[in-house]
Amino acid sequence: MAHSQPIKDVVRWTFQHQYFQQTVKNKLKNKKAAATKTKNMTSLFGQKVFCCVLVLVMACFSDKVKLLFQKGTINQTIQVYLHSLAISSWIGIQAWVIFVAGITMYFNMPRHVFGHIQSKLWPMYFRIGTSLTVIALLTNGAVLQLKEKKTRIEEFQHVSGLLVSLLCGILNSFYFEPNATRLWMDRFAFEKERGFGNEIGPIKDKELLANPKYKALTHKFAMFHGMSSLATVFSFIGGLVYLWNLTCHLINT
Questions:
Q1: Is the pLDDT of residue 18 over 90?
Q2: Which compartments is it annotated to reside in (predicted)?
Q3: Rounded to whole angstroms, how far apart are CA atoms 40 and 230?
Q4: Lower Cβ count inside 10 Å, N or C end of the chain?
């Protein structure tokens, strides 16, 4: 009988432990089910809202769309719309990234966190920009048809800004940005080994800045980063030049 009490305690503890585990599992299961239900309801609500907006838009523009079909200009209208959407989106994205997002993050985030975020954002940024520029070039013919036929030289002058933007985007996507990011990560690894990386803004440690290996990495990175930044600026200027040409073209239509 003296040994029966510890056995009872072990059995009781085992039962309580199993009961606690089962309770936790049930709570987690219920939370997961509730989250799934909420997600499904949100998705269903979003689909209903989208359908309502779509029906409303169709109701508002049905007569105009019908008129475009009757005139035979529906394809041209869609192309001009896509053209305007592509060029305005690309210029807006560039303005936000160059003048707002990059500067704000650089002066308010630890340098390594900022660098890792940028290493994910920049490739997507350049690919989206290149894609939007290609769409603008492919739909440019519909815009040119709004006026009398231009000469080859006039057509080239009209899209010259877009061509510059496209060239800069391709160079950044496939050459400047990948090399700059690779060297950036090499610098970060070198800094992390020496306890740096949580600083906001540039590193000011004189000993690190004087390190020959770090200086070599910094020099190579600065070269590719400088070329990438220059290409980004030229891409933005090219977009603005094209937007000016497009505005003049539409006003004179």
A1: no
A2: Membrane
A3: 46
A4: N
